[in-house]
Every structure is written in structure tokens, then in C-alpha cells.
Design goal:
Oligomer: single chain
Shape: globular
CATH architecture of the largest domain: 3-Layer(aba) Sandwich
Largest sheet: 8 strands, mixed
Strand order of the largest sheet: 3-4-2-1-5-6-7-8
CATH class of the largest domain: Alpha Beta
Number of domains: 2
CATH superfamily of the largest domain: Glycogen Phosphorylase B
Radius of gyration: 21 Å
Helix content: 40-55%
Number of strands: 14
CATH topology of the largest domain: Rossmann fold
Length: 374
Amino acid sequence: MSFPLPPRLILFGAFDRHNLGDLLLAHCAAAACGAREPIFAGLAARDLRAWGGHRVCRLADIVSAHGGEPAELVHVGGEVLTTTAWEAAVMLQAPRDAQRVIAQFDRDPTGRRAWAARCLGTARQLPYVFGPPDLPAAWASRFVAAGGVAVGDLPIAAADELRDALGTAEAVSVRDRTTQAALAGIGVRASLLQDPAAQTPTLCGDRIEARLADEGFACLRRRQPRWLALQLAAAWGDDVTLALVAQAAIAEARARDAGIVLFCAGLAPWHDDPAVLERLLSQIRRLAPELAVERFTSAHLFDLCALLAGSCFYLGTSLHGWIVATSFGVPARCLVDKADDKAAAYIETWPGPAGSGWLARTAVPQAFNKGAAE
């Protein structure tokens, strides 16, 4: 007796570029699939397996090949509800190409939108939100632990596009109360669900433990029995901010009798910049020559997770750096630009262990000096 096959399962997200959170969310989503074999879809076809990611297919190609078949499209987390076509297209470029197009369209919003549409092959304003009229009739969609703190700032046309996509989805969950309230403001009801990366020890713990047990981390422990994991987005790379972050990291490391290991959480444009990290490293060495300080050179997803899991503290701008660290019980502080930042919204909704939290950019020196003295 034959049984009908289940609908094709498609996991759709921003795991077509190198970023700790997006690569990790793909693994978390796959783990939730049980025995079903998913297709990983993005806006571009990419193979990120060398960095611990997946072979990712272009969603448009999947629609062309399987649009007439039943399928379940799962929108996988991250700040996907408000990522614009321009932002998505730039983040898919090589760093030099990204700099070129940013300069080219800096004062040309019309040209920017046209270039992004050509690059992505879609006119959708929010390309990681897939719905009518592009969603095939035989497909069902779900949104899982999505983020979108800036929903209230969307242009009317983009907000309409978002409302239509969410309104036809079988289920919508978001990862923070700010996004939940913003969606309610445009007439969309969403449940609240913790970011799946909070389950990293359960879903990916064996792979992370194996990395921690290898010779590379054994050598790190011989150099630094205890380390503070430090990361910083490229946007925080001005001299004044670097000096403040260096002072803050030094205070935290001294308070914990630890060294400092700097790492990049994402190599895609508008994420981290190794050159900024090198300047931060120089600042720390100049201000605290007695501290053990070094760069972590691996960009492999599970090496980064192991670095966070094995640390005594995390300090950085990466929300998923904070989520992974706290999931292993490591105290962490996330640096944010302002109180309505996506990381602040998430941390207010799902507080971490004692000593964890977020700090606005303007409060970094005062808050850290206070925290180090407690």
C-alpha cells in the first residue's frame, strides 16, 4: 500500500551569506524538521559548507522547478521582516563590490531600487518575506521566530506587502515583543517564540563539544585558560568608539582574570570587518600590555560557537553572539546603537543569565566602569 509523500519542505532565510546567526538558524531549523530532508533556499545560490553552512539554492529557481507541487515554505528567523531589497542585495556582494555599489547609488534612491531588483531578480520590497502574488498556489508558508523591530517605519507599500504575506501564512511567530506590537499595529497577530538559537546546546551541542576538544582550542587554553570573547560590527569602527570598547573589554577581562579573544561574527558586508578588529586589538595591547590578547582566525560556524561556549564572558554587537553565549550559561553584554535596536528588543523579551544584558552605545563607558567595579 502506497502513502502520499509529504509536501516538499523549503527552509528560506538569509543563510546565503556568511553571518553567525543566519548560518546557525539554518541548522536549528533543519534540526526541527526531524527525518524530513529540507531544501535550503535564499536569494542567491551559494555553497557555504566550508564555513559550516549549507548549499543554498535560489528561491526563484526552486519556484520554477517545483512551483506546481505541494510545498511548505518556512521563513527562518532573523530580522527578515524588515530587510529591504537594497540591504539584502548589498549583503550578498563581495566586500569590494559592495563598496562600489554603495558609492554609486549613495544619492540615487531610484537607481538603488532598480539595481537591487535586477540583482535579486524580484521587485519585492522585502525580499525575505515571500507571499502573494509570488507564492505558488500549492505552497503553504510559515514564519518562525522572525524579527522586525522597524515594522512601524516601513513605507506604506512595503507594509502592505508584509501584511499580505503574513496574512496568508499558516502561522506567524516573532522573537520579541517590540516586533509583536509593531505587527499588531498593522493588523497582524503573531505569537511570541524564543529565537531557535537559544537551543544551540541541545541542537548542536555535540558538534560544538567536538570543536572545543580539538587541538586548536587546547592550544588556546594553554595560552589563555580563561578568555573574554570580543566582537564588534564594522559600523562601530570609528576611533572614539574603538577606544571606549577597548577600555570596556579591558575592565571586564581584568575583573575576571581573563585574556581577550577577538573574532568576526560575520564576513558579509555591513557585518564585521577584520581591519576594524585589528585596530581594536592594537588599542587593547597599547592600553593593557599585560593582558593576553589575540585574534581568532577561524570563520567556521561551529568554531565560533565553541569560542563563545568556552568563554567566561561575551562582549559584542552580534545578537546571536549574545544568544549563543547565554545559551551555554555564559554572561554576555550586547552593544546596541539605541534602546529600540533589535538586540535590545530581544534581550528585554528574553533576559539571559546574571550579568547579561544590553548597553546603548552612548552608555558604554559609564555602564562598563560601573559593572567592572561591582
